[in-house]
Amino acid sequence: MNRNAWLAILALLLAVYPLAAGEFYINLASQIFIAAIFAASLNLLVGYGGLPSLGHAAWLGLSAYISAWLFLKMGLGHWATAPLALLATTLIACLFGLIALRATGLGFLMLTLALCQVLWGTAYRWVAVTDGDNGLRGLTRPAPFGISLDDSTAFYYFTLAATVFSIWMIARFVGSPFGAALRGTRDQPRRMGALGHDVWMVRWVTFVYSAFWGAVSGLLFVYYNKYIHPSSLSLTTSAEAILSVIAGGSGTLGGPIIGAAIVVLLKNYVSAYIERWNMLLGFVFVVIVVFMPDGIVPGLRRWWARWKARKVA
Amino acid sequence: MGALESEKGRVTPALQISGLKKAFGGLPAINGITLEVMPGERRLIIGPNGAGKTTLFNLLTGDLRRDAGAVHLFGEDVTRLKPHQRAHLGMARTYQIITLFGKNTLEHNILLSLLGLSADRWDAFRPLARHGRLYEQAREVLKLVGLEHLAARPIAEVSYGERRRVEMAMALAQKPRLLLLDEPFAGLSREERVAVGQLISGIPREVTVVLIEHDMDTALDLAERITVLHYGSVIVEGTRAQVVADPKTREVYLGG
Amino acid sequence: MQFWVIQTLNSLALGGLLFLLASGFSLIFGLMRIANLTHGALFMLGAYFGASILKVVPNLWLAALLGGLAVALLGGLFERLILRKLIGNELGQVLVTLGVAFIIADLCLILWGGDPIPVPTPAALQEPLRFFDLAFPAYRLVVIGIAIATAISLYLLMERTRLGAMIRAGVDDMNMARAVGIPVSRLFTTVFCLGAFLAGAGGIIGGPMLSAYPGLDADMLPLALIVVMLGGVGSLIGAFVGSFIIGFIYTFGIALAPDLAYVILFLPMIVVIAFRPRGLFGRIAA
Questions:
Q1: Range of the domain at C169
Q2: Domains of chain B and CATH, by start
Q3: Chains A and B: how many Cβ contacts under 8 Å?
Q4: Which of A26, A39, C82, C183 has its CA 20 to 30 A from that of A215?
Q5: Which residues on chain A are in Cβ contact (under 8 Å) with B172?
Q6: Contact across the interface for B83 and A178, Cβ inside 8 Å
Q7: Top-level CATH class of A18-312?
Q8: CA of A124, closest CA in chain B: separation in Å?
Q9: Closest Cα partner for A56 from A102, A98, A87, A97?
Q10: Could you read off the pLDDT of C52-106 as tens digits, one per residue?
Q11: pTM, whole model, 2 decimals?
């Protein structure tokens, strides 16, 4: 069966899922969608760009906080807070990108980590704006075309649509000439420069684009929870995203989505039994990096290829 | 030979290096090199290992920053320009150590080269596959180096000799005015050397070619003028005959 | 006036602690090209070890020594058993250090609970020194002294000993160092243990000022990163200067503009990185 057939089946399953599943599982699916966009946006940098970032939580947190603040303190409606939050976050990303891209590799990683930690610390301390450790509550979900999204099924379809759109946009980006150039800069940056590509610009544009979709996931995040807390800007959040990317398989489109699903499921199920999510996250990190560095999707692909080869032989 | 006349009635050199210097942590690698390559010329830069040849190329392409001196490309000062800017002004190079995109096909490699100078490289939405014209151009370039039949093969699966030819194709795809070839014969068998040699001789005169080699015999036929480097300085320069006859050349290769 | 004295001493003392933390981080990064994100957790672990050891051995300095050694031992095991398997996989190494940092943080939470554990100031240093009507908290002065002593020791180590020469060679050019016969793998373990020791001991020495609390690792790690990026990777002078700059900015920032202390904190790093990506004294770009 070809890929389109599989996608069609997947689409059908996703469409009828809420009819079969209970509310808890519908909400779980919504969480997975949000995490999938978050991870897929990070993958643009990590997998396709070769730029490891440990500060991706910045975009989720910034857009969530800005949207919440505009709503609570300025009384703006969602039709205004959403684009403004996205715009503001993207502008900040433009600025952060200028700083972070002064380095590559580990330097880039440390810069993104430090920058995001600064936002995290500021979220705790700038109590006048963020209400510190209390977080911002009393938020609402938008009501597009008058349909309330407070119902978990309605929110599920809304998020599903947003996810499909986001992943599609990211896929187009990756499959375009720019995406090919991006992968080129990951593999042979010096050569790409000699060929005429402005490597810095390619990276910076990707940084900003990746931040934009991270911000989109932030909006969905704050709509889902109706609450935002500084912990969403923590290193743990960024770590979960990068774990999703590498566990699923960086440099593929499906990898981060599967990785995100695994992380969300793990978090939800295991949290019921083990209180220490961070410790488990740490263990999973070590296990994946040491034993499955390519991630699950490439691993599965290899087994699939081997299985098919065996059938022919 | 196309001549670009300046007001003084002099032909503008394709490449003009003035007083170029580069030191690594106190150790001088390039010791004040001045030379000119005229448009359409075939220049061979030769010297034993460690003479500074690849460092010179890296300075020319902008991969390394110079300590002192200037580089002019067809009269324009490119000394402060970044590598990609120099590429847009017509400079192209091949690498001594093959740096292709190993996991991609030959066709894709050439595509990346073509994209480097094409406005299409900023297209972040339309699928690459839809840019049919680029694919046609890529095939044309592969035909030039006789590798069209391998277009869909990944680089990792073709032979070393074929990869060397892809290196050449990458640079030719840029339709350069100045082509820098860094040891294009390295590691090749007899037949492969002949093939690559023919490729180089076949390059049209609009392209100025500067070749690096450390093995004199291989590249001698291709060169019109030769510059001999030793310890980062120009020791001998002149026509083939002049350089071969000069005792300093032999000293550099056989003596100290 | 008293306010400025206290804040200045606090700044210097924090700078001293940061130096203990950042010097190890910088050495490990410079030599092994590993961004050891476990470093903040090692500092915190040291603080907790110290608090516990002090219950049995009521001497802070002895506790710092023992705690530092314990953390060094754990660090060495981590390097040998896990990091060693990931040579060449730079991103993998960093992620693994992050994973272990998380594990250590939660282990500390399990073992020592969620409440901050105060570390008592040594009795001899509880009285402030008095000069000209001003009180100088004695312990802060001692911490500054320890930091300076450590800086001098590290300098001597790097410049005057064979070990230091090997480290410097490795930082400059790893392949060359190997070619010359330097036992790289033993060197790596040694340096990692050294860095871990400094972090762990630093945690205990910082105990009377900061105490041991969950989240200490997350508070200290970004400071260490900023110091190293500001001062330059692999540079001890950079770590020294950077530590005190950040110590001052952080302390005065918190005192004068607590809401935005974090933003003020990373301004110098941004300014420096914008103009010199390798930091003030670094020789390699990160």
A1: 2-122+142-275
A2: 1-90+176-256 (3.40.50.300), 100-175 (no CATH)
A3: 95
A4: A26
A5: none
A6: no
A7: mainly alpha
A8: 38
A9: A97
A10: 998 888 888 899 999 999 999 999 999 999 998 888 788 889 999 999 999 999 9
A11: 0.90
